[in-house]
From TrEMBL:
Protein source organism: Nothoprocta pentlandii
Annotated gene: F13a1
GO BP term, pick one: blood coagulation, fibrin clot formation
Cofactor: how and how many bound: Binds 1 Ca(2+) ion per subunit.
Region (Disordered), start-end ranges: 1-34
Protein name per UniProt: Coagulation factor XIII A chain
Length: 735
């Protein structure tokens, strides 16, 4: 057997006894379509050119032409036609002679994938009729002139999302003639939030502008007592991003026939955005070590990440929750699914959905770090995607939680969602997917308990309000913060909240305090503390306040613990501890200050300048323990961005980034990054050193492409200083 014959045999698709065709799960692969299908024998002298044939096809695919304008796809940097399903679009066909409807017969064929089948929606013959039916495939002639006809084509409102190949087929007495394969006529079909029949229909124009068309957003981080925000460039319209997003579905091996269903798409995407079990887009790292990659804090947007993955097919290193959420948001908006990034402050994590985080204290009331395994994230970011849920009872459509950060496995893969936000609020955790896990993230209790010498476990405190205290997203039309906590949970302590909790327990969420425990809290003494706001590199103080509400004299032994933590609440090291005594007179208050010096923390600090303070106090007269914990974040210096010269589309302009090193040490191996959708592609520059208290100035030239209000986003990164950002809104004028 020759080598070529052997190779041909290897290339034949593998079949099995259960199906006639292999899986059709790649948008990129194609089949060969015959240009001529002959009916039996053709007579001598037969010439196909004697019959009607296509000379040219006009797709009206320029951003200023009718299709992209009407379909809200004019912002995509793509030379191809991009339309939204369930809405008519126009094409023009030029024939070799005038079209005669009485004798000439032609139709359109849209194909996707390598094994097109009509019953799978991957081969779509579109016949020309007299009228278009809403949300169904069809075509009608709207204009005839000389040898040309103008067609209005309606796609199905449930059509597969992806890149289709277009052929024009013409019938003759002797066979069917087709146009040649022409990549210029390829048509991308996307979800359509403007179409009532589409599963992602959103009826508010301002919400569509924000959640589908806005290509820059704001992601909230920090902690609940010091909320910070950073801009993120989603860049869903940038060159090659649409192809990169379609490739992700190929990578996930989602059958093409399932790609009209947003539920299936967001579920597989929540797995493929992370690299945990399928070599997906982003590799996560939470250990402050970023060898062979870059720190998550350096990214300013999704475009570089998606394009790097699309070209290399290797996971991009590294990301953390806001990076996963930012890239996922780009994917969703790019395909036309309304989406937004959510931040949950004090987010419960890895607690087996039992609505309980256990913090164990030793006999002296200090936190026992060996037995305490649960953690509370300062914040956690996920996404919401808007869609109907025909798989659930009426009322549970709308916003759905989807989370690409790898935390727990779901059906054997690291993914989460879609989970109905409405189901979470009402405790209906029986509805797919992953509702118990999301419910626990926003509803868990913190239980402080102590093991006595006789083995009895004493519960010292139950905090029912710490977790999920604030859930936010970006405001529509501005960079402000919108509080959406009430979309996830009823007011703490209300009858409705208790009913939702009881409902969740009824549906199988475990809610129980460990057996053989005693809970008699100290109710007549309150303890709390406040952390002074401080800039990175400065000293600050923590003020602990006690209030004796009784007529009794009390004394207390208090223990203060200051820890450097990852933003996930996992402790790296204790950098300060202090024990002090407090005397509490009847009906009185007293305070105690703990001073934190910069020299105590600077050498240990992690990415987000994040601390966790834990204060416990034993009331000597009763033996009861009070416990309070809080996270705090230091103020990190900003980058300052300025523009010089006129800001006009198509004309050169200058952008300056300035940064002053606030530390009494030299910063080494510093990377600056600058990007702005529609203004400039990502630019990077490395600096070997920035001396202590000195100012760095970086000037770049660029030529903005798109007029309107645009945003420039910059980041600075080095081992000693991360999460340094700056941004500037720029009004780009028309030429």
């Amino acid at each position: 057997m020759s080598e070529t014959t052997s190779t041909r045999k290897q290339k034949k698709p593998l079949l099995n006894g259960r199906r006639a065709l292999p899986s059709n799960n790649s948008n990129a692969e194609e089949n060969e379509v015959p240009e001529m299908e002959v009916f039996g024998l053709t007579p001598r002298g037969f010439n196909p050119k004697d019959y009607l044939h296509v000379v040219d096809i006009h797709m009206f695919k320029e951003p200023y032409e009718i299709n992209k304008q009407q379909h809200h796809t004019d912002k995509y940097y793509s030379p191809k036609l991009i339309v939204r399903r369930g809405q008519p679009f126009q094409i023009q066909i030029d024939f070799n002679r005038p079209y005669k409807p009485d004798t000439d017969q032609f139709w359109l064929e849209y194909l996707i994938g390598r094994y097109p089948q009509q019953n799978k929606g991957t081969y779509i013959p579109v016949l020309v009729g007299d009228e278009l039916k809403p949300g169904e495939w069809g075509a009608k002639i709207t204009h005839k002139e000389n040898n040309s006809i103008r067609l209005s084509i309606m796609s199905s409102a449930t059509c597969i999302i992806g890149k289709f190949r277009l052929y024009v087929a013409i019938s003759s007495p002797f066979g069917i003639f087709r146009t040649r394969r022409n990549a210029e006529t390829d048509t991308y079909i996307l979800f359509n939030p403007w179409c009532q029949q589409d599963a992602v229909f959103l009826d508010d124009e301002k919400e569509r502008e924000e959640y589908v068309l806005n290509d820059v957003g704001v992601i909230f981080h920090g902690d609940i007592n010091d909320i910070k925000l950073r801009s993120w460039s989603y860049g869903q319209f940038e060159e090659d991003i649409l192809d990169a997003c379609l490739f992700l579905m190929d990578k996930a091996e989602l059958e093409l026939s399932g790609r009209g269903n947003p539920i299936k798409i967001v579920r597989v995407a929540s797995a493929v955005i992370n690299s945990k079990d399928d070599d997906g887009v982003i590799a996560g790292s939470w250990d402050n070590s970023y060898t062979y990659g870059v720190a998550p804090s350096i990214w300013t947007g999704s475009v570089d990440i998606l394009l790097e993955y699309y070209s290399s097919r290797q996971p991009v290193r590294y990301g953390q929750c806001w990076v996963f959420a930012g890239v996922f948001n780009t994917f969703l908006r790019c395909l036309g699914i309304p989406a937004r990034v959510i931040t949950n402050y004090s987010s419960a994590h890895d607690n087996n959905a039992n609505l309980q985080l256990d913090f164990y204290l030793d006999e002296e009331g200090k936190l026992d770090t060996k037995t305490t395994k649960d953690s509370i994230w300062n914040y956690h970011c996920w996404n919401e995607a808007w869609m109907s849920r025909p798989d659930l009872p009426v009322g549970f459509g709308g916003w759905q939680v989807v989370d690409a950060t790898p935390q727990e496995t779901s059906d054997g893969m690291y993914r989460c969602g879609p989970t109905s936000v409405q189901a979470i609020k009402h405790g209906h955790v029986c509805f797919q997917f992953d509702a118990p896990f999301v419910f626990a993230e926003v509803n868990s209790d913190i239980v402080y308990s102590r093991r006595e010498r006789n083995g009895a476990q004493v519960i010292e405190k139950i905090d029912m309000t710490h977790v999920g205290k604030l859930i936010v997203t970006k405001e529509i039309g501005s960079d402000g913060m919108m509080d959406i906590t009430e979309e996830y949970k009823f007011q703490e302590g209300s009858d409705e909240e208790r009913l939702a909790l009881d409902t969740a327990v009824m549906y199988g969420v475990k809610k129980q305090i460990t057996q053989d425990t005693v809970y008699y809290p100290q109710t007549d003494v309150d303890m709390d503390f406040q952390v002074q706001k401080a800039i990175l590199g400065s000293d600050f103080k923590v003020t602990i306040a006690f209030k004796n509400k009784s007529q009794n004299y009390y004394s207390a032994t208090a223990y203060f613990s200051g820890n450097i933590v990852f933003y996930t609440g996992v402790m790296k090291s204790e950098f300060k501890n202090q024990t002090f005594n407090v005397t509490l007179a009847p009906s009185s208050s007293s305070t105690f200050d703990v001073v934190i010096k910069s020299s105590e923390y600077l050498g240990e600090l992690l990415d987000q300048a994040s601390f966790h303070f834990f204060v416990t106090a034993r009331i000597n007269e009763t033996g009861k323990i009070l416990a309070v914990q809080k996270a705090t974040v230091l103020e990190i210096p900003m980058l300052h961005i300025k523009t010089q010269g006129e800001t006009v589309a198509g004309r050169e302009m200058f952008v300056t980034v300035e940064f002053t090193n606030p530390l009494n040490q030299t910063l080494e191996n510093v990377t600056l990054r600058l990007e702005g959708p529609g203004v400039l592609r990502t630019m990077k520059k490395d600096f070997r050193q920035i001396p202590a208290n000195s100012t760095l100035i970086w000037e770049v030239k660029c030529t903005p492409k798109r007029p309107g209000l645009r945003k420039l986003i910059a980041s600075l990164n080095c081992d000693a200083l991360r999460h340094v950002y700056g941004e500037l809104n720029v009004q780009i004028q028309k030429l």
